[in-house]
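Final report, Chapter 2: Outcomes

The project's central promise was a pipeline that accepts a single protein chain and returns its three-dimensional structure in a standardized token representation, suitable for archiving and comparison. That pipeline is now operational. To close this chapter, we reproduce one record exactly as it appears in the project archive, with the input sequence first and the structure output second.
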Amino acid sequence: MSGAAGPGPPAGPGRSPLPCAPRPAAALQLGGGAEPARPGVAVIDLRFPRGAAADVQEIVFRNFYTAFLSVRVQRPGPTGSRRWVTCLRDYCLMPCPHTEEGSQDYFSLRRHQMLCDVDQVTAVRFILRQPSPVWLHFTIEELQIFPPGQKSPQKDFPSWLSQLTPPEQPASLHGELPDPEKVSTEVQQMWVLTEVIRARQAAARIGRFDVDGCYDINLLSYT
């Protein structure tokens, strides 16, 4: 499973993200000791305004030192009640959690990468994991969700481009072709004429003392 990633935001001119308000990342803590331990897991919850449901086509965000990402969505279940379903599991954002690679790249997660249907979603939960103790703070930023069916707006073309005339079409040759039988007769006549000329040239090359390819001694003696 792969998604677009790079140093800049994925291109998408003319698109409008869905209105949503993600909460700040909340780090999970383990109690039981003198100080709460950080297991390297954080959660970001996102809901759409007024409990509205939305169809998800693409999720775009910028990473900030998160190594692995899982995504769960809340959508209608078989009985109609809402339930949480995992649609992305342990997606790798940093090939090596201890190094900088991928730590601040932009990522694009598309619909075909999801493990389940992402229509009629009312809430999205992002589960972030960073197993390396090198990075004390990790999250994802600039989070945007785009719906399906959006097209880039039509670009305005200069007026002179629309006034160009189409290229001239070659004249139709239908009805102007010569008669095939006439062409065949002329070709045969040319072939016969060529054979006659070739025979004459062959005869001209025979010397006056050459008779059937041999020299006549009598003719040679009188010259």
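Archive annotation: Confidence is low (pLDDT under 50) at residues 152-157.
This record, like all others produced under the grant, will remain available to the consortium after the project formally closes.
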